[in-house]
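re: ur question from earlier - yeah i can do the single chain one, its not a big deal. heres the input i used so u can compare w yours
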Amino acid sequence: MNAEIFIAIGCILIIAIVAIFFYYVPFFLWISARVSGVHISLMQLFLMRIRKVPATTIVRAMIEAHKAGLHDVNRDDLEAHYLAGGNVEAVVHALVSASKANIDLGFKMATAIDLAGRDVFQAVQMSVNPKVIDTPPVTAVAKDGIQLIAKARVTVRANIRQLVGGAGEDTVLARVGEGIVSSIGSAASHKEVLENPDSISKLVLRKGLDSGTAFEILSIDIADIDIGKNIGAALQIDQAQADKNIAQAKAEERRAMAIALEQEMKAKAQEARAKVIEAEAELPRAMAEAFHSGNLGVMDYYRLRNIEADTSMRETIASPSKK
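and the output i got, formated as tokens:
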């Protein structure tokens, strides 16, 4: 009974040792590498496990590079790139594609592009197969005041040398849009643009809009041009309305000043009339004092009354008859 227990324990220990061995020493992966012509030792595979580097990923990348004839790709560089946070498989795929397409792309450049956050494999694919980017509708106004809405298709190819530090698609689209606006704005008439839409693309291409970007612009094609609003007429209408409002405001200001002046004159007239009434109220007292002091006689008084009656009669005759 004791012997059977010892045998069972021994079997369990052997199985555990074998499992640990094959976990830390990927024997079958080593055989696969040797069969594919990749020289790597079991000790190196074991050390990869210790450094927490996926041996399967590294070995497969080495096998792919070896089969593609990329002899400058080695294990140390692949491990360093993985530990730096890079995508080893994408880099090797990109190197193989670049080699088949006769694109000059080295391992250091590929890893730099990958670590910069760009998809290096997609960049190589875009170098082989150019990409077409549709711009959003670009609105511009010709010199005759007619608004035009243009859409363009920009064919670009990735510039491998500018992928690190180069501007992206948004910058290209912004520059193309700016070029379209400038080209339409410099046209004397919107009819010229409609008759020769290729003049826009030629003018934009001559500006070198791909400078400092990660792309090379191959062509700019105007896909569609629509006529928008008559901006010139709308601006003239707005200006006329503004002038009208200004004139009305000035007229209202003059009317208010005239009303104020009229009110002021009425106030002065009322004040003068009040003074006249006050003076007339003092007249009997002055005449009484004149009679009392002997300065005014009875005959003088009658002559004054006759003058007043004559004046009143003349005013009545001169005034229009009232019905």
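The longest strand covers residues 215-230. not sure if urs matches, ping me
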